[in-house]
Amino acid sequence: MESIGKRFKHLRKMMKMSQVNFAQAIGISQGTLSDIEKDKFKPSIETVISASRYFNISTDWLLKGTGPGPGEVPVREKRQAELSPLEREILEKFRELDEEGKREVAHFVNYTHFEQAKKGRLSTSTSEQAAGKEYA
């Protein structure tokens, strides 16, 4: 598919959704979706990310037509099958938390990750990513 508008329309049709339902799901108006599908203008990055998350597809597919598209298994789902029993338990409990609880857990994990990166206890690529963050 040659345009982002055509990919949005293709995704909506694959999901068997009306423009109204699809637009509501990703947080835009039906008119905006119609204009995107007709290639009158391009979606904002927030709209692309919202559609990617909601429909569990690659932003690369929406933007460029590459990467996992509708019906394909994204890498993050493939990795989930590789979780240890402890990781699965933590993930299941995390999903049961309300948004405030999830934010608290995320802050704790980010802080712990940062501290371990400072001590050199993470792999090089993860250490470099963590070094750019500041947690106090």
UniProtKB/TrEMBL annotation:
<feature type="domain" description="HTH cro/C1-type">
    <location>
        <begin position="8"/>
        <end position="62"/>
    </location>
</feature>
<dbReference type="InterPro" id="IPR010982">
    <property type="entry name" value="Lambda_DNA-bd_dom_sf"/>
</dbReference>
<keyword id="KW-0238">DNA-binding</keyword>
<dbReference type="InterPro" id="IPR001387">
    <property type="entry name" value="Cro/C1-type_HTH"/>
</dbReference>
<dbReference type="Pfam" id="PF12844">
    <property type="entry name" value="HTH_19"/>
</dbReference>
<dbReference type="GO" id="GO:0003677">
    <property type="term" value="F:DNA binding"/>
</dbReference>
<protein>
    <submittedName>
        <fullName>HTH-type transcriptional regulator ImmR</fullName>
    </submittedName>
</protein>
